[in-house]
Amino acid sequence: MKKSVQNLKVIANVKLNNDHHLLQLHTPDQLENIVPGQFANILADQSQSIFLRRPFSIHAVDYQKNIISILIKEVGEGTRSLSHTPVNSSLNVIFPLGNGFSLPSSSEKVLLVGGGCGVAPLLHLAQVLSKDFNDIYILLGARSAVDLVELNQYAIYGKVFTTTEDGSHGEKGFVTEHSIFGVKLDSFSRIYCCGPEPMMKAVASKAKANSVSCEVSLENTMACGFGVCLCCVTETLQGHKCVCTDGPVFNINQLKWQI
Amino acid sequence: MADLSTIIHNIKLKNPVLTASGTFGYGVEFDDFFDINLLGGFIVKGTTIHPRQGNAYPRMAETSSGMLNAVGLQNAGAQYFATEIYPKLTKYETNVLVNVSGSTIEEYVACAEIINDLDRISGIELNISCPNVKEGGMAFGTSCPSAAAVVSAVRKVYKKTMVVKLSPNVTDIAEIAKAAEGAGADSLSLINTILGMAINAETRKPVLSTITGGLSGPAVKPIALRMVWQVSQAVKIPIIGLGGIMNATDAIEFFLAGASAIQVGTANFIDPLATVKIINGIDNYLNRHKISAISDLIGCLHL
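^ inputs. structure came back:
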């Protein structure tokens, strides 16, 4: 779908836990193909400290109702302001942006690994992968049970596994300590990963050791989101690449990560 | 519809709205959003004779009513621009200018020579004011003799309109402006970003990889207006004003201060349609005030 600037109507704003909100945004236009992993850059009410847009992964897409969902975790003033957008008001959104995950051409056994708010693009990814009858394993990690949101939604599309740091849900520990990494990882043909960078590096290292293809979604700070400010670059084998247009999804073999 | 046309030396602009270098890519990035032929023109990314990787990440910090950047002139070099990017720009009917930068006078000259051979480029904007590179850049724009030296050297090889972009990081911008005018500049654009800094109190580290960076956005507008005003009193060549312009009212203020045209920069990041809204807003303002042409507004500040 061609990128555009639109005023989208907030048709639902659900508080999922203490700091997570799920916003459903409606467009009067017919949504076209949005690739899982693409993102939306959303304008919050401007204030002395909120100047730039805030980028969010597209969490889910409903092509029948023309709705995109955005999962927002409150981390600062911008996300706090957006989290509290009243239903029936509108938000100015530039979307869809970025490249998105690459999808298998025939059905495969795939592993999706998400940590913290990095789980957001994985629901849309699971949605799309399930249409092509992929065998989908979804591993989600969080600090505590209360931080794991929408598990029932992920369960529609695949087998869900969890870790929590306090052991209140699933296996205790970091997501990379889950027993799924103890078995033969090369039974998976692809690993898709999104979350904090140390976690993605740990997953990437396991994928590399087992020669499994692995894509990660980065979230460098950016000003524009469409490739003109050149602020969000990451180092790749081909030099600096913009996370907003060349990414946010990169194959780990493209990155200069020490893994 | 008022007459929005304005002239910068030999460049006729159908309206006075340009885009600032480094905020509009090569124009093509905006094709999905609007027809960029609606602009008076656009100024492409800072170009240097040799390819530059730019500075390390992080390159950006959001600040009160603005942002700092430390991109460091990332570009693929003048030759790449001429062979790979320029052919894609010839589809545009509006004016395209190239921002030219360098670390030495020889590099500025070599880069300008390559751009001089490109027919569809209306002019260059000589960047003697980039705060984010170690050598050259701003160093040329902060003293009268070095500004004059680079401007006159490029003047010898560049035949079309040469705009010189001035740095605000100086004690007396009017003196630098006069030096650039004396050395052969056809027009001046100001201001480039203001050197600034952001610190993360929690980590006790600078936010930018380069420690300091260039401040832009509405936070700098009063400084930019003051400098456009001062320079307009000091030189005869046309001035292109920029610095924190977010809407048509901001643009009008720059015309009143003496700018013949304006550039929209950081606003492009927040609203890709900002420039078209500003063009329409300028027209509305002129109609509302029963002014038939933008030229009747330039420098008409009531004192």
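The mean pLDDT of chain B is 96. DSSP finds nine helices and 16 strands in chain B.
thumbs up if we can close this ticket
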